[in-house]
Write a structure and sequence with these properties.
alpha+beta; seven-stranded mixed sheet; two-stranded antiparallel sheet; Gp12-like; Phage neck terminator protein gp12-like domain-containing protein
């Protein structure tokens, strides 16, 4: 399974301590505050697999291991336009330095691509949400383990027992 909760926890807590700005899920905010805020949303929770899955068996338990991509979108909210850009640049800087190291060392997650910073303003009804944002692509291991069910004895009707 992809450790999505662990990834989210590491991203939100580490970015908060680096930026001193709240980092929250995009869909958890009803009315965006007038102050500064960063949102995180997993816009593509599981992307394409790179390479082929590898099946191994250890202690009688098969494990399927593949590398997949996960795309996270970060949006910066602030009253002033330049402040939104600066916040997004700080998120980018974190992924280029501390974030890259933390994700790799603690979770085995690799920062594969840091997207362009773009204006992502949207109009909802008569209200505008002013924001800048970018996408981050992470390379994550998807590990699926299942107990192996072994059939030891089979009774077939109408078949002579082997060796008789």
């Amino acid at each position: 399974m992809i450790p999505i909760r662990e990834i989210d926890q590491l991203l939100t807590t580490s970015l908060l301590s680096y930026l001193h700005i709240p980092v929250v899920p995009y869909d958890s905010i009803d009315n965006f505050p007038e102050d500064r805020l960063i949102t995180c949303n997993y816009s593509r929770p599981v992307g394409e697999a790179s390479g082929r899955p590898v099946l191994t068996v250890e202690n009688g338990e098969p494990t399927l291991n593949e590398t997949v991509t996960l795309q996270a979108t970060f949006l910066s909210y602030a009253v002033e336009g330049l402040q939104r850009i600066e916040q997004t640049l700080q998120v980018r800087d974190w992924f280029l330095t501390e974030g890259c190291t933390l994700l790799k060392e603690k979770l085995g997650v690799v920062v594969a691509r840091i997207g362009m910073i773009e204006n992502r303003d949207i109009q909802i009804s008569s209200r505008w949400e002013r924001r800048y944002g970018m996408d981050i692509e992470l390379r994550v291991r998807h590990i699926l383990s299942r107990p192996l069910e072994v059939v030891e004895d089979v009774q077939l009707r109408g078949v002579e027992p082997f060796g008789q």
